[in-house]
């Protein structure tokens, strides 16, 4: 019988935060922004959005493939806030949303990566996530 290999510990991504830090961020948002937003729009707006891991992986794979075809080696994703026009909102209120927008520039264009990468308008943004009503608190 052969030797068993030691189990490798999965490495945590560098930008992960603790659940406690996430709760602090959510609490700060709810205390400093939610009351004014809800007062302005006249209802309790959503502030959390959901996609399955499978949906996100499918979209990220699509962005990588399309970016590669354009000569973009290291695409990014920028997340934007948005709001549905009342007439296009299922509940006729105009709830908030977020959408993911691909970024990146072809290799060799200096200064066009990371936070300052331009939006890639050749690849469709990603939306249609679910949201809690009322919003789920983290």
In short:
With 138 residues, the chain is of the alpha+beta class.
Please state the average pLDDT score.
87
* Strand elements, count: 2
Order of helices and strands: HHHEE
Decide which structural class fits the backbone: alpha+beta
Rg over CA atoms? 19 Å
Q: Helical percent range?
A: 25-40%
Strand content: 5-15%
User: Into how many domains do the coordinates divide?
Assistant: 2
The spatial strand order of the largest sheet comes to 1-2
Overall 3D form: globular
Q: Report how far apart the termini are.
A: 48 Å
Structure annotation, total helices: 3
User: What characterizes the major β-sheet?
Assistant: 2 strands, antiparallel
Unreliable segments (pLDDT under 50, ≥5 consecutive)? none
Describe the structure.
The protein has a two-stranded antiparallel ribbon. The mean pLDDT is 87. It is globular, with a radius of gyration of 19 Å. It has three helices and two strands. The protein has two domains: 16-45, no CATH class; 50-130, no CATH class. By secondary structure, the chain is of the alpha+beta class. It has helices at residues 19-32, 34-41, 53-69; strands spanning 76-83, 96-103.
């Amino acid at each position: 019988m052969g030797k068993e290999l030691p189990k490798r510990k999965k490495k945590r991504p560098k930008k992960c935060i603790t659940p406690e830090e996430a709760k602090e961020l959510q609490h700060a948002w709810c205390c400093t922004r939610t009351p004014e937003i809800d007062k302005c729009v006249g209802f309790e707006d959503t502030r959390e959005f959901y996609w399955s891991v499978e949906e996100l992986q499918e979209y990220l794979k699509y962005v990588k493939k399309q970016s590669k075809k354009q000569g973009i080696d290291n695409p990014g994703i920028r997340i934007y806030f948005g709001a549905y026009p009342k007439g296009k909102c299922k509940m006729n209120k105009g709830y908030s949303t977020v959408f993911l927008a691909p970024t990146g520039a072809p290799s060799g264009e200096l200064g066009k990566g990371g936070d300052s990468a331009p939006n890639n308008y050749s690849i469709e943004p990603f939306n249609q996530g679910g949201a809690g009503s009322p919003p789920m608190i983290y």
